[in-house]
């Protein structure tokens, strides 16, 4: 059977001598705010903007209903009009939001 102890636990149990010091590189702190989001809308060849585009496929024989097929080609992602330096498909948020994966505790003492 394999070991059940994590690498961190094994490393901590080895201990550190008084002469040895652990040198950790200082990490740059990330901001908890998000200023842009990925746009969910696309432009088609005609300049129309929507989340999805469909085209109607006429029936090949009588008595069969027409079907709709989703268009996946020749679509351009929505671009934010404020800066041209943004990546294509990025849209600026009207105000900063908190990042979902950022470990932060919100607390208010009343």
Automatic annotation (TrEMBL):
Gene Ontology biological process: regulation of mitochondrial membrane potential
InterPro entries noted in UniProt: FUS1 (IPR029393)
Gene Ontology CC: mitochondrion
Top-rank lineage group of the source organism: Eukaryota
Protein name, per record: Tumor suppressor candidate 2
Natural source organism: Cherax quadricarinatus
């Amino acid at each position: 059977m394999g070991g059940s102890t994590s690498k961190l636990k094994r490393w901590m149990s080895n201990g550190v001598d008084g002469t040895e010091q652990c040198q950790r590189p200082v990490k740059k702190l990330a901001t908890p705010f998000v200023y842009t989001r990925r746009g969910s809308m696309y432009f088609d060849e005609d300049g129309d903007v929507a989340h999805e585009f469909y085209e109607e496929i006429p029936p090949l024989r009588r008595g069969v209903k027409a079907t709709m097929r989703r268009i996946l080609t020749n679509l351009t992602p929505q671009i934010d009009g404020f800066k041209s330096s943004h990546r294509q498909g990025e849209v600026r948020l009207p105000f900063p939001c908190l990042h979902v994966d950022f470990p932060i505790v919100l607390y208010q003492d009343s």
